[in-house]
Amino acid sequence: MTTRRHVLAAGLAAPTLISTARAQSQWPDRPVRVIVPWPPGGSTDVLCRLLCEQLSTRLGQSFVIENRPGAGGNIGAEAIAKSPADGYTMGPLTLGVWSIANYLYSRLPFDWDKDFQPISMHWQLPNVVVAPSQYVPSTNLREFIEWARARPQGVSFGSPGVGTTAQLCGALFCDRQRIDGQHVPFRGAAQIIPAMLSGDLTFAIDNLASYVPVVQEGRMRAFAVTGAERHPALPDVPTMAEAGVPDFVVNSWCAMAFPAGVPAAIVEKASQAMQQIANDPDVKARFLRTGAIALGSAPDGVWERARRERPLWQEMVRIAGARLD
């Protein structure tokens, strides 16, 4: 039987439900904080700023960047995970957080399956196999593999650090091709490129965007890209499969995320806006100028990709012996 108490309770609850629904439908009605887990000026930061410009225009609110670098992106990721689940904090999380971190660290300050709510894919970027033209005589990938195998002292490959896609790709490549390869960590491409051009480093399988200028100048040869398709920035460079190395499709990628628990209506509104932005021809062109390919997806598309790729990254971490504890 309905009692007066039940009627009063329902009456009190109704304004709260209406208020919550209105807040979700009007999102965003104040500035949104966007935590970038990387320093200013890097590719993740630059591409996030491009996205935030578009979000501000389309949704009528400021999307304010806050850089929180450190620990391979984990500091910023933790800040996102522990923020209020109200739709007013988000950030770009790279595949290191989605698909690699659990294999590199014995403990993390977040649960990669429970603490984030994906919004949409953001971008992807393949690596490229490069070597200095002056010191490596090979003109294609098969020639390079044979040349590297024959080196009495082996070869060296550079990366921006332990656990990066460049280190893991280099280790997997050397393992599968039976090459004696020594990993040499650097701070980034700005140090790797001079080391190769001076003959102190043999090759790298690193972020394509960093190497396009020196490849176009002829100072380095690009043997293959690790994407499933050729990249518009280097259209004459084959994929790994085309170059004779099958089953080597590896892309760096990024997806935008809220902390877990953000209302579904807000997630859907944000996702739809990001998908529209990714399909805008002008945005695509601006992303390509940085070397990246703009992506958009439903939230579940992020989970599908992250979980599908984890076994490969786990294998790569094992082969590389990479740990960051």
Automatic annotation (TrEMBL):
It comes from the Bacteria. Coiled coil: none annotated. SUPFAM superfamilies: Periplasmic binding protein-like II. InterPro entries: BUG (IPR005064), Bug_dom1 (IPR042100). Belongs to the UPF0065 (bug) family. This is Tripartite tricarboxylate transporter substrate binding protein.
